[in-house]
Amino acid sequence: MRREDTVDTGGTPPEQPLFELQGVTVRFGGLTALSDVSLTAWHREVHGVIGPNGAGKTTLFNVCCGFVRPEAGEIHVRGEPVPHPRPHRLASLGIARTLQGLGLFRGLTVLENVMVGADRFRRSGFVSALLGLRRSVSDERALRAKSEAVLRDLGIHAHATALPDSLPYPVRKRVALARALVSEPELLLLDEPASGLGHDDMGELGELVRALSDRMAVVLVDHHMDLVMSVCDRITVLDFGRVIASGPPDAIAEDPAVVSAYLGEEARA
Ligand SMILES: Nc1ncnc2c1ncn2[C@@H]1O[C@H](COP(=O)(O)OP(=O)(O)OP(=O)(O)O)[C@@H](O)[C@H]1O
Q1: Which of 96, 130, 131, 155 gives a 20 to 30 Å CA spacing to 49?
Q2: How many angstroms is it from 30 CA to the middle of ligand 1?
Q3: Ligand 1, atom 8: nearest CA belongs to which residue?
Q4: Domains, the chain, ranges and CATH?
Q5: Which residues, at least 6 apart from 34, have a Cβ–Cβ distance to it below 8 Å?
């Protein structure tokens, strides 16, 4: 949904972005990977981040997830400053992410992998789980039911008892997405969601992301222009660590700085 026709914001006032990076700068030694980069993610919006190789996309994603700590800049979630988001605290901020590497546990079934993502709903502690106390058992049942529902939503419930390595890559990608969605995030961060997918799977992914944006904000970093252009409401374009354009897909496609950055990339290639 585009900003101008936002009506139902699900509780977050429309004046306030769900997630905001302001003036973020990241340096690796002498190399400036991000320079004064800002980005906002609004409820029910798909925001794409694109840019030529080495532009800083992964670094930006890693700042959002708390894997990389910026040297300067601010991060706000629902208007509140979050000076140092930590990867393991994302769920409690209402943020979930999928990574390029998927990060599935090979020794756990699909369902168990997804249940790991639902852990924030667990009310009982480690000791009661160890002793098999009643609260822990009911927690387990609820997490299982929630995880099964997400697998059903994503059309992969038939694989619930399979080990990830036995499944085709596109299904494994869905498992990773299910694990992120089961925490019921308000903001979903997707790193290269289309990588390794064929044309049909990519089309389905696009439809899925659009559908998800009915109930959350999505920030996606991806190389695939077709996907980004067709799915995103707004796009931020990075080049050499700087934002060179930000706006709706139509404007981005015609932006001279963007065209020249990508032409430059072809020339470099
Ligand atoms: N941990 C690191 N240490 C040193 N330099 C790094 C590190 N991570 C990234 N860089 C450098 O920062 C710049 C931005 O890298 P980044 O991976 O964020 O770009 P990208 O847009 O994701 O590139 P690609 O599309 O090729 O994945 C690059 O010059 C890269 O070499």
Answers
A1: 155
A2: 13
A3: 59
A4: 1-94+186-269 (3.40.50.300), 108-184 (no CATH)
A5: 24, 25, 26, 56, 59, 60, 63, 70, 238, 241
pTM of the model: 0.84
Per-residue tens of pLDDT for the chain, all 269 residues: 444 434 444 555 557 889 999 999 999 988 999 999 999 999 999 999 999 889 999 999 999 988 999 999 999 999 889 888 788 788 888 999 887 777 888 889 999 999 886 766 555 555 555 556 566 666 778 788 889 999 999 989 999 999 999 999 989 999 999 999 998 899 999 998 888 888 888 888 899 999 999 999 999 998 888 889 999 999 999 999 999 999 999 999 888 988 888 766 665 55
Nearest CA owner, ligand 1 atom 29: 54
Helix orientation angle between 134-153 and 110-117, rounded to the nearest 10 degrees: 110
**Residue located nearest, by CA, to atom 30 of ligand 1:** 54
Distance (Å, whole) CA 109 – CA 159: 9
What atom of ligand 1 comes closest to residue 241's alpha carbon?
14
Please indicate whether residue 56, judged by its CB atom, sits closer than 6 Å to ligand 1.
Answer: yes
